[in-house]
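Re: that backbone. Tokens:
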């Protein structure tokens, strides 16, 4: 199957529908369906957006806990750091939210 290259990871609407192929997951080609029938994929509910203070309650710390110890971070600490990141014009934090569950399922940080 066809895979996305690094250049295909630019933040554009088409990427929202293909996050897994860029990471070695399923092929980027959409699944086939009988003519006139829609096919739902597991990434249909993924929305990319900027970081929000509300992400603490949407599982952001559990997600970051997969990489580091995040157990001591309070919601106040998170809100303070989120505000700092949002205000910093050199830092861009993108969050992938599953709108079906309201949970943060991915994040990326770009330092310019």
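Recovered sequence:
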């Amino acid at each position: 199957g066809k895979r996305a290259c690094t250049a295909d990871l630019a933040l554009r609407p088409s990427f929202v529908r293909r996050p897994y192929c860029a990471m070695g997951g399923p092929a980027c080609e959409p699944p086939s369906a009988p003519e006139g029938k829609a096919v739902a994929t597991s990434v249909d509910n993924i929305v990319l957006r900027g970081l929000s203070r509300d992400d603490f309650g949407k599982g952001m710390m559990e997600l970051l806990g997969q990489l580091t110890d995040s157990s001591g971070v309070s919601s106040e600490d998170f809100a303070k750091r989120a505000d700092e990141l949002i205000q910093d014009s050199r830092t861009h934090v993108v969050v992938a939210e599953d709108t079906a569950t309201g949970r943060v399922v991915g994040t990326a940080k770009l330092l310019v």
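The radius of gyration is 16 Å. Residues 75-87 form the longest helix (13 residues).
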